[in-house]
Amino acid sequence: xxxxxxxxxxxxxxxxFTATRPEWGVSExxxxxxxxxxxxxALLSSLVDTGLLQCRTRGRYRIGWRxxxxxxxxxxxxxxxxxxxxxIENLVERYGETSHLAVMxxxxxxxxxxxxxxxxxxVQGARVGARLDAHCTAVxxxxxxxxxxxxLRRYLAGxxxxxxxxxxxxxSGALLDALSVVRSSGCAYDLGEAVSEIHCVxxxxxxxxxxxxxxxxxSVPVTRFVPRKAELTRALTAAARDVTHAIAASTHATPxxxxxxxxxARGRSxxx
Length: 272
What we know:
Layout: H1 2-15, E1 24-25, H2 26-33, H3 37-50, E2 53-55, E3 60-63, H4 66-75, H5 80-95, E4 98-105, E5 108-115, E6 131-132, H6 138-145, H7 149-157, H8 172-185, E7 188-191, E8 198-206, E9 212-221, H9 222-225, H10 229-250
Antiparallel strand pairs: 1-3, 2-3, 4-5, 4-9, 5-6, 7-8, 8-9
Helix pairs in contact: 2-3, 5-10, 6-8
GO molecular function: DNA binding; DNA-binding transcription factor activity
Pfam families: HTH_IclR, IclR_C
Region (Disordered): 248-272
């Protein structure tokens, strides 16, 4: 049991290390994850031993080089990011709107790639490496909709649905209804739910076995999104299918089709 509790604390410790705060001390970690200083020191020492952290001068800790090695191992399996990059770049070149690639990582949306739009007024979008709430983002809804029922119930039981804007879904029943529509239509919308005045559409990316492994999205100012909603939705869902086929080609397989691959209903709102 003690070993399991230690493993469960590793994720929260690693989550502390961000681009804005890359260095932590033992006392700071202990306070942040609410454990005794001795326990925090033991956790940090274990992570140093595995190479996930490095100990610098004055007992300060930073991310270790082992993370890069693990990243290369991930790239050596199925590199979704490389498969998606040319598709996303083409999407932005054609429509001029900021586009993202995201995955689900420990119940949060993790943004792994982004191409900024080309309009004079454009959405900067989430930075690569950012982790955001899933319930209020289009990519998050796509990824939540792909979870098994038990996993989804566990997600809902483990957190409050935080309100980001007046449009954010904060009721679990309403979110389940929205996710049901996402499954049947093959895409999801964020209509100002994460950031007011920004609308997004997202669609699933699948591996060669048909499992959802990522989501592609387009983020657009509401003034441009509303009149072009159907057009942008068709373009985005087609791009997601192109990434799916690129993944299959990289593994020399034929992508498994599911009912989610149908064209979305035109003009239908999925977020409310």
